[in-house]
Each structure stands twice: as C-alpha cells, then as structure tokens.
Design brief:
- The chain is α+β, with helices and mostly antiparallel strands.
- A 6-stranded antiparallel β-sheet has the order 1-2-3-4-6-5.
- Helix content is about 40%, strand content about 25%.
Length: about 160
C-alpha cells in the first residue's frame, strides 16, 4: 500500500486504527476527498465521506444513491447512524493490486466528488437559498455557491413569466 501511494504521488497519512491509511484525493467539486483504507488480515476495506445527512428530499437523495449503486464497481453508498452518506467497499487482500487501487480510487472520486453538486442541490437547496440571500444582502462573497447560481439567483422582480 505504501509503495503504491508513494509511486502514485497520492497524499496519505497513517490513521488511528491498525492498518489504516487516510488518503487525500483531489476533487473537482470538493477541494479534497478523504478516503480511509484499512488493511486487515484478509481484506481491504475502503470508506469515503460523501455528504452529510440531507436537510430535505431524503427520498429523492436515497433513490439517486441507490440508482448510482448499480454502476459502482466494488463500492456502494450507505448511511451511518447520523444519516451521513459514505461510499464503502471491501475486497479480499489477494485481489488488491496496483491496478485495482488505481481503479478503486477513480470510483471513489466519481462517487464522492462527481455526485457532490447534484446531492447538494437535492438535499440542501433551501439552506443554500437562505445562505445565498444572506450573502447577497450583506455584500459577502458567493464564490462557494457559484456552481448553484442558476438555482439560487432569482430575477429582481421574481420569476420570469411563462410564455
């Protein structure tokens, strides 16, 4: 594991648990994606945080995640007791190769980073609207919400009339 991470120039550090590596994968939508890899006696377990428990539209968020589960090789979405969303998986150690690790990190990035904005829009839109309005009213930066401008910005006179 150490050799692969060093050769791939992936940022990592040892975790708190025996055999745990905390890997930092760069993201497009998130600045970084932390992934826990635990090398056990017989298997490698993988876990990465995706998004906190949605504020709204739980059914739509969970349906979206279940549909995506059908396309995730070796991983699946799940929630913890707080409702926070993770992507996890486990593979026998004999199946762990450099090619597998390269592939699984790509899957983690797609699952945790690639879906992030869609999950935020589904599960946190009302909170983002309030944050946007507060920032606009105070002249604060909206830079971290720019990806959602099309959902958050309302024309000055309300929604445009229908044709």
């Amino acid at each position: 594991m150490r050799q692969f991470l060093q050769e791939a120039e992936i940022e990592w550090e040892l975790g708190r648990r025996a055999g745990e590596f905390i890997v930092t994968l760069p993201g497009d939508k998130k600045l970084k994606n932390l992934c826990s890899l635990v090398v056990g006696d017989q298997s490698l377990s993988i876990s990465a945080f995706v998004v906190r428990n949605p504020d709204e539209n739980h059914q739509a968020v969970y349906a979206y995640l279940l549909r995506r589960n059908l396309r995730l090789p070796g991983l699946a979405y799940g929630i913890d007791k707080s409702g926070d969303v993770y992507v996890t998986g486990r593979v026998p150690l004999q199946g762990v190769t450099a090619a597998y690790l390269d592939q699984i990190f790509g899957v983690v990035l797609d699952a945790a980073d690639g879906a992030f904005n869609e999950l935020l829009a589904m599960g946190f839109l009302e909170s983002m609207k309030k944050e946007w309005a507060w920032r606009i009213s105070r002249g604060e930066s909206t830079r971290n919400l720019e990806a959602f401008r099309h959902l958050l910005e309302t024309p000055p006179d309300g929604p445009a009339p229908s044709p």
